[in-house]
Structure formats: C-alpha cells, structure tokens
Amino acid sequence: MTAKLMQRQLTRRQILGMAALQTAATLGFTRIGLQSARSAEPDAVESAPAIVVGSGYGGAVAALRLGQAGIRTLVLEMGRLWNTRGADGKVFCSTSAPDRRSMWFRTRTEAPVSTFLWLDVVNRDISPYPGVLDRVRYDAMSVYVGRGVGGGSLVNGGMAVTPLQSYFAEQFPAVDTAEMYGTYFPRARSMLGVNTIDPAWFESTEWYRFTRISRKHAQNTGLKTTFVPNVYDFGHMQREAAGTATRSALAGEVIYGNNHGKRSLDKTYLASALGTGNVTIHTLEKVTGIRRETDGSYVLTADRIDDTGAVVERKEYGCAYLFLGGGSLGTTELLVRARETGTLPALDRNVGTGWGTNGNVMLGRANHLWDTVGANQSTMPVMGIDDWANTANPVFAEIAPLPTGLEHWVSLYLAITKNPERASFSYTNGSVKLGWTAGQSAVSVGMAKKLFDRINSANATIYRYDLFGAAGKVFADDFTYHPLGGCVLGKATDDYGRVKGYSKMYVTDGSLVPGSIGVNPFVTITALAERTMARVLAEDTAP
Ligand code: FAE
After folding, report:
1. What is the pLDDT of residue 32?
2. Catalytic annotation on 482?
3. What does the DSSP 8-state code read for residue 522?
4. Is 398 a catalytic residue?
5. Residue 364, pLDDT above cutoff 90
6. Which of 205, 266, 203 is nearest to 240 (CA)?
7. Which of 40, 49, 140, 263 has the fewest Cβ atoms surrounding its Cβ within 10 A?
8. Can you tell me the distance from the alpha carbon of 177 to that of 165, in angstroms, rounded to the nearest whole number?
9. The one catalytic residue among 398, 408, 421, 530
C-alpha cells in the first residue's frame, strides 16, 4: 500500500491518534492522549471510569472500544512509547547490532538462537534500559514478551493466523464458533491490517528462498505446507526489495522492533483509541496491586519508573471498570497476588491455573550444500508445515528465518505442538512462580522430533546442534513465545472474560486461552477481546 493510499484508509480519528503518539514522543511525555498532544500540563485526575492494564492486543482492543463508547479510559503500560529516534536515527535497534533498546533491563542480550557453531557470537553486552523485549525467567521455562505501547506487537513476527475452527471449538466449547468465525475473527483481521504475500513474488524473490527450501523438504516428506498471513505490509516489503523503501524486514529487524512496515498496535488499535479523544496512556507505570473499595470501585497501585528502572513515584488510581490486558503473565501475576495477599479474596481458585506454552519448540536442520537458504532472508515468516490433522502427532511448524547476511544452510522452525501439559502459578515469599517442569516440555519435544525425524529421513539431512547453547541442545524447549492461560475463559472468568467473584472486572488478553491454540495466537486473542468488549459494552456499562 502506498503511503498516500494508507492515509486515505486511515480515519481522521486515527490520524489524530497517531499525531498524539508522535507529539508525546517528541516531547518525551509519559502521558499520551489528545489532551497531552495539546498541552504539556500534567493530568491532575488520578481516577477514570475505566482503567486498562497493559497495551498489548487485549488492552488495545479494550481501550479502543471503551473510547468509542464515550467512556473516559486510562491505559497503564509498564513499557515505554517506542517513537523516539536514538543517536543512529532509528527508533529500534537491529538484531545484528543490539544496544540498550533491545532488552528490558539487561546487561546482556538473551536472543532465542544464542550460539552459532557453538560460539557465543549472537548476544551482546548492553546497558540496562526499559528495552522492548523481555525474557521472563521461571525455574524450567522462560517466556519472551514485548514491553512498550503495543506489547507483543512490537517484537513479534507478525504472523496473523486464524486457528482451525474445529480446534478452536475444542479449546472453547462454550463459545459460539459461528459468531467467532463470522464476526470477531474477520473484525480482528481487518482492524489489525492482516495481508498476504503475493505468491508470484514469493516464488521469485531471493528473500524467501529459505522458505521455499523448507517447503521442498516438507513436500519430499509428503507433508502439507500452507501460506500464513501477516500484519507486515507486503507492499512495503516488495518496495524494500526494489530499493525504493527503507529496509526493515529485509534488514534483519524483528525481535527488537521493526522501524518500518509492521502494522503494530500503535499504528492500528491504539492510534484509533487515542483518536477517540477519550483514551490516555501512561507509560513506564507498572501496576503492582489491585484492591476493591467498599463502594465497589477498584484502586490500583502503580510504580512509575525512570530509564534506570528506579521507582520515581508510587501512584494510586481509582476506577469503576477494570480491564486486565497485561498478557498471560502480567494479568495472572496481578490476580494471583491479589487473591493470595487478600486484597481480592473472592477470586476463583482457577485463577493461576491452565497455563501452557502453546507447545512451542524451536529447532534447526542442516541442509545439503546444494540446498542453499540464501544470505538474504526476510524476518517475516509466511509459511507453515501443517501436520495438525495428524491426530497421532499434531504439529504446526512455522518456517522461521535466520537472517545473518551469510549463507549458513540452516532451516529454522518454531514448532507448535499439541502438548496437553498445563501448569499453575503459586505465590511464595512475595513472588509469583510458575510451576512448569522440564518434563512437561519433553512432551512438546517428542512431538516435534517425530515430525522432523521424518523430514530428515526423507531428505537425508540432520539436526543442527550448535544453535541453542554450547551444550549442543537440538530442541529449544526452555522458552516460549506464546504464553497462554492463567485466567482461562469459563474457569477463572465467565464465558465472556468477566472475572468470577468481582463485578466490573474483566480479562481481555492471552491468559483467557487455555494453554494451546494450535497456531500463533494474537489473532485469537484479539478476536476474543472484541467478543468480550461487544458483550460488556452492551450489557454491563448501560446506565
Ligand atoms: P501482550 O501483547 O504481551 O501485552 C501485555 C502488555 O501489558 C505489555 O505491553 C506489558 O508490558 C504490559 N504489562 C504487563 N504487566 C503489566 C503491569 N503489571 N502493569 C502495566 N503494564 C503491564 O499481551 N504471535 C502471533 O500470533 N504471531 C507471531 O508471529 C508471533 N511472534 C512472536 C514473536 C516473539 C519474539 C514474541 C515474544 C511473541 C510472538 N507472538 C506471536 C506472540 C504474541 O506477541 C502474543 O501472543 C501477544 O502479544 C499476547 O497478547 P496479550 O494481549 O495477551
């Protein structure tokens, strides 16, 4: 899409919202809204009819729909607004030369593919800063999440996949699938700006040679592959390839943010939300506690931090309606803490349960010398090996890029397996812990191995042993990109995300999904949030 055309498709309100985001960034505000775009005066009001915690998919949908309903809404986001250029003239740093902008208060980056030829050549020393990617570490599992206005949309691969209707129905038996697939999935895809790669360009461009090689090897094994849509603007990507647009996906940018091309939430839902004039976002404010007053309103405590991570202010906010969009970890942690410390004692015992990794396992294969994957690789995945219908061993494996600028003959995959294992969170000594064990990951590895053993055998290839640490790990089963569950729909909440035990409190994020959805999850999270907001605005907020 040309810039002109895109502008025509944006509403006036969305353009105003984008302007608010831009002005706030330029002036270095931590408070973003149409008011702050006009004036630098601090907001004296510390309460709002509605508060949204977090600005990822669930939070962004809630903010937009509340704003459109004319409800003044405050969004509290612990990360920063990513719209200010660094000394290099860019907002985000690249994966090949990460600096302090890359990770959330770290002294060294922690990339998923951590070694090459067993050498520690991927990660870099950095100075601590509220960077855009976090890796939250628990005992046997660590979880990658995005931090900033837009949450995971800032760092993810943009794969916008609608789950198989039959699997969605299996995971959400109480949800009307006809309504989801007829109304909420299409609404989510349209709002997110989902588009598909031009198949003719895909077949001819050097940037997707790595995908075509993996497809060939899947076909040699008798396996099915399928194109997957993305929120990265493929028109922009083709112009990057032609040399007429600044490169982002074709310049190795992804997990530490994309400077161009990606329709992250700050360009879609959140811009529209700010454009309603009813939504304000506070950044660098982490909600740490929730309690309920006798009048039924909620009080949130929040720590405002500076760029060093120091708490510069402890704040309290009041609201009548509370929407939790802190993601599977953020929301679950807040609610488990509130129940266990007695500030929200009536929360259901299912809060903190039903958590899973979406069966994530990452792995690499070594190709023959003649099967080159290309030195030039786009960072946006566009195809998956779809063996989900194999009931004995269901796997959907995304064909992932490994852009190094050199030919390396590696095929990389993020396998999504149907791992039935679930874990719970517990509250011990002031912190919330995840009880996932290494044995539970072994189930995902078993499934991924069965599929990729077949692919290796059909193509006479082997695994790569050098990508996930010096110890020679083949299957990276100790991290996930897809944390799901913790406040599962119909268990910790009613069938629409209303938190059990408390009125006017809602969950709208990935914690509603019961640990597995079979594909990359953000379209599902967005569609479910749309469904929740439609119901809540129709039934709960009427005067
Ligand atoms: P999320 O987007 O994580 O947003 C939560 C927000 O709340 C964040 O901005 C937090 O900073 C903020 N927050 C948390 N706690 C607090 C608190 N206490 N106070 C204030 N703010 C708070 O949640 N999914 C796909 O579908 N396709 C992909 O291609 C894909 N690739 C991925 C690649 C990477 C590297 C990663 C990390 C994830 C990827 N995902 C992908 C997963 C996807 O981004 C994720 O499922 C969604 O972002 C989850 O959406 P939520 O709304 O649940």
Report:
1. 76
2. yes
3. H
4. yes
5. yes
6. 205
7. 40
8. 7
9. 398
